[in-house]
Amino acid sequence: MTYIEFKNLLPSSIAGVAEVCAVLFFTWYIGTAAITWYRLRHIPGPFLASFSYLWIIKNNVLGRGAQEHESLRKYGSIVRTGPRYIVTDDPEILRRINGARSSYPRDAWYKAIRTEQHDNMGTIIDTARHDRLKAKLLHGYNGRDNVSIEAMVDLQVTHLVDVIKRRYVSTKGDPKSFDLSQVIRYFTLDVITRLSYGEPFGFLDAEGDLYNYTNSVDRLIMALSLATDLPMLRWIIFSPLLIGFLPKSTDDNGLGKVLGTAKNIVKERFEKENSESPDMIGAFMRHGITQPEAAAEGFLTILAGSDTTAVAIRSTLLYLMSTPTVYHRLKNEIREAIHSQPISTPITVEQARKLPYLQAVIHEGFRMRPPAVYGHYKVVPPEGDTLNGLHIPGGTAIGHNSIAMMRSQKIFGSDADSFRPERLLECSEEKKYEMERTIDLVFGFGRWMCAGKMVAQVELNKIYFELMRNFDFQLIYPAKAVDEMSYFVYVQKNMFVKITASV
């Protein structure tokens, strides 16, 4: 049916109104696109990004956020990625806009990661409110308020090693392969739930996807990434019409079930006025956090503190297994350390920090696969700003392009695309400081620095040492070592390995 035939079927009044509406919408769209293009016309970037969100949509639908953002290096240090979005791979710009005295507030980008419409430290946009809340919460994150972070991580590292020995180690007559990506994920979930609530939720012991949680999170990631990046979609998803379809604490499985379990633990703590527990929720309560705040913050630790660390661990282990020279050098350093000095089981953070190659591996792993690919946008103040000689209009959202920053040849050398921990050991102290300081930006900077940085560092200093101390690893499918999609974060699955006892 042609447009003319369709039009003739409608009453003349309706057809006329439809035509007017169509013309008005088309005019509005063209005008908006032109204005949008004009504001940031001097910022280079992909053509589609100059007037629409199509570049962002394409990357998310294809799961190619990392590859596409890394390719932006050809445009320079500041690149346009959407109508009002720009990203930068310049460490100094990121330190400036995220510093404690910066006047750049958070963008509404953060709002998409709220749970049941409750704000938490990760979603609050108001800077003063964020700072007040973070000051209270840090007592739980930094381990100084009766929260023994290292001791709790030790329990989970020991349990992981025991589980691998019992279930997954191959012997001559009993070869086995398993998906290491899931086991690592269960480990990080148990670590963060023990730290937050005093006891692990039991993902490792369940021998499967407890509550179907990880599967539900993976299915949500693309939608979540689109919602963070697309203001209109964010508004639609959180509208009264659709909000009831989002995960909620009354669900029987998935993300909602874990949210409900965490929420019930907090409720019981407050009903019993039990603020003495040596865990993060106990510390939050001791510093005046309310029950709704504690529930929201507790779940944030699970959502933000498990998968990001799991990506770092998986990726580093993958690079180790794929790079024999690095693998064997780290194994040798571990053997020599065990034979030459008293090393506890598990190794302490203090002992681990004295092993230079282990530290280089930790940093290089973060560099090659930063847990957050891009995003975490801040808003340029109303008066605008000048960055690297470019005027940035007020209201523009600027975020990090970590994947490009971590491949900077200027900072990391001509082989920046290669996994080579030696780069941190073969340079001057000044250069090493520059590289490590840049890599540390994966945790953010200034007032917006990740509160869980210390927790992640404790985990990483222990997990690589203990896994390499006890086991030898081999990829089952080296040509397709892992299934990986990337949005503003990575989703990794099917990393099958064979493990034998270390010799």
UniProtKB/TrEMBL annotation:
Question: SUPFAM superfamilies from the xrefs?
Answer: Cytochrome P450
GO molecular function of the protein, one example?
A: oxidoreductase activity, acting on paired donors, with incorporation or reduction of molecular oxygen
Please provide the record's keywords in A-Z order. Answer: Heme, Iron, Membrane, Metal-binding, Monooxygenase, Oxidoreductase, Transmembrane, Transmembrane helix
Residues passing through the membrane, by range = 12-38
Q: Name one Pfam family in it.
A: p450
Positions the record marks as coiled coil are: none
Q: Which cofactor does it need?
A: heme
Which residues are recorded as binding heme?
A: 450
Give the protein family: Belongs to the cytochrome P450 family.
**What's the protein name?**
Cytochrome P450
Q: Taxonomically, what lineage is the organism?
A: Eukaryota, Fungi, Dikarya, Ascomycota, Pezizomycotina
